[in-house]
User: What shape does this take?
Amino acid sequence: MFPRRYFPLILLWLCCGGCLWSGHGPASPSVLSAPDAVSVEVIRDDLWAAGGSVVFIPFTPGANAEACPVVDRLSLMIVKGAADVFTERGGKFSFITDGDAQKAQFVIEGRIEEFDTGSRWKAFGVGKKDVTLKIKGEVREHKTGEVVALIFGYKAFKKTKDSERVAYELGRSLGEKVQH
Assistant: This one.
């Protein structure tokens, strides 16, 4: 059978190997995903090319996002980021607030598909370490309800406290993609 004299050596090897594998290496940036984390797939080029006014309905929680004040706040930060881009830059689309929603030619609505804060055990090097935010939405023509474009967005980052900033950046990326 296995000699007992090797037991301390194997135990040391397992402990050191686990510490090296746990990811406690050089510091990594807070936001991990690519800067181009948002994509817009245009379905109706003819309607999209014309542009027009847009009302942005805050995203609702999806299957993997708990309905809570934190997710509501993230949704509003996405809207704020997109609205800032629409108001800072001129373009083929203009932003309309809820009060003038009936005048909008397009409606952007969707879901926060995932907001995962990672494992509770991540401080100990066990489990998922990244916080993730994933959105999916649609741009619809207001009159007919026809889908004009599909929106996808994803960000992975290290700290839960960065959630609002990341949601704002995701909204800005969304606004920039829509304006192009």
Notes: The chain has one domain: 29-179. DSSP finds four helices and seven strands in the chain. The chain has a mean pLDDT of 78. The first strand starts at residue 38 and ends at 42.
